[in-house]
């Protein structure tokens, strides 16, 4: 039987019973239909996880500590997905699968040809939503550290940020094969263009900032496919696949 895993939004206490927050308790009792005494796992995003048992007291739900496990399921490859905004539910899909595949962070990027345009309060709400998607993906996949979902930024602002290690930019033409690259000795950032593709100016900006153009074979992939395919390939090359 699969044991339900829950993200605990505060540092887990070192001892004693743990009162579950209302949202967590609702999900455990009303959505998953867990019963008194059922096993569960709690993690707070700092690494490691706590095995516990559910205890129901009237309307309150608590976790009774069992054993703490200092488990790490993070990839040895520090991989940041810099993803141009995709329309509809595609960004939810990209965030979810990127977390499952082991990316360490995701930077949503507002590119010139993005169909989806976000700013102000809408942008803040969408980023908060993606952070919840990332948490759910960690609960499902067994990760004990929640990847950071950065605020939405423009390409120029992102490229002007402090040095971040190696940068790769996906392009359907003139890109090097991933297998021809040397193993990075620091964090690796992977830039993925929007549904309309990078503009010539954006590609020029990327090259000027030191991004290495890479390709994924002769076929043109959709934005929701390209980044995830590249992440999986990089994990096979230098990660834990």
UniProtKB/TrEMBL annotation:
Gene3D superfamilies of this UniProt entry? 3.40.1280.10, Hypothetical PUA domain-like, domain 1
Question: What's any one GO cellular component for it?
Answer: cytoplasm
Q: What InterPro entries does the entry give?
A: Alpha/beta_knot_MTases, PUA-like_sf, RsmE, RsmE_MTase_dom, RsmE_PUA-like, tRNA_m1G_MTases_N
Annotated catalysed reactions? uridine(1498) in 16S rRNA + S-adenosyl-L-methionine = N(3)-methyluridine(1498) in 16S rRNA + S-adenosyl-L-homocysteine + H(+)
Compartment(s) of residence: Cytoplasm
Question: What region holds the Ribosomal RNA small subunit methyltransferase E PUA-like domain?
Answer: 20-65
Tell me which UniProt keywords the record has, alphabetically: Cytoplasm, Methyltransferase, rRNA processing, S-adenosyl-L-methionine, Transferase
A Pfam entry, by short name: Methyltrans_RNA
Question: What is the superkingdom listed in this entry's lineage?
Answer: Bacteria
Q: Which GO terms describe its biological process?
A: rRNA base methylation
What residues does the Ribosomal RNA small subunit methyltransferase E methyltransferase domain cover?
A: 74-235
Q: Any idea of its EC number?
A: 2.1.1.193
Q: What terms describe the molecular function in GO for this protein?
A: rRNA (uridine-N3-)-methyltransferase activity
SUPFAM superfamilies from the UniProt entry: alpha/beta knot (SSF75217), PUA domain-like (SSF88697)
Q: Which family does it belong to?
A: Belongs to the RNA methyltransferase RsmE family.
Function as written in the Swiss-Prot or TrEMBL entry: Specifically methylates the N3 position of the uracil ring of uridine 1498 (m3U1498) in 16S rRNA. Acts on the fully assembled 30S ribosomal subunit.
Per its record, how is this protein called by name? Ribosomal RNA small subunit methyltransferase E
């Amino acid at each position: 039987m699969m044991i339900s895993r829950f993200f605990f939004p505060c540092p887990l206490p070192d001892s004693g019973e743990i009162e579950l927050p209302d949202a967590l308790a609702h999900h455990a009792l009303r959505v998953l239909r867990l019963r008194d005494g059922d096993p569960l796992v709690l993690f707070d995003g700092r690494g490691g996880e706590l095995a516990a048992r559910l205890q129901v007291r009237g309307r309150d739900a608590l976790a009774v500590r069992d054993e703490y496990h200092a488990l790490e399921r993070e990839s040895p490859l520090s991989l940041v997905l810099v993803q141009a905004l995709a329309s509809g539910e595609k960004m939810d899909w990209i965030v979810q699968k990127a977390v499952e595949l082991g990316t360490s962070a995701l930077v949503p990027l507002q590119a010139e040809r993005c169909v989806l345009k976000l700013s102000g309060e809408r942008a803040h709400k969408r980023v908060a939503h993606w952070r919840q998607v990332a948490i759910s993906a960690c609960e499902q996949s067994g990760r004990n550290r929640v990847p950071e979902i950065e605020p939405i930024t423009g390409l120029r602002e992102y490229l002007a940020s402090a040095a971040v290690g190696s940068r790769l930019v996906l392009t359907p033409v003139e890109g090097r094969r991933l297998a021809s690259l040397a193993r990075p000795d620091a964090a690796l950032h992977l830039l993925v263009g929007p549904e309309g593709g990078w503009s010539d100016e954006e590609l020029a900006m990327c090259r000027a900032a030191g991004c290495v153009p890479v390709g994924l074979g002769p076929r043109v992939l959709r934005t929701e496919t390209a980044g995830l395919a590249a992440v999986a390939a990089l994990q096979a090359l230098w990660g834990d696949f």
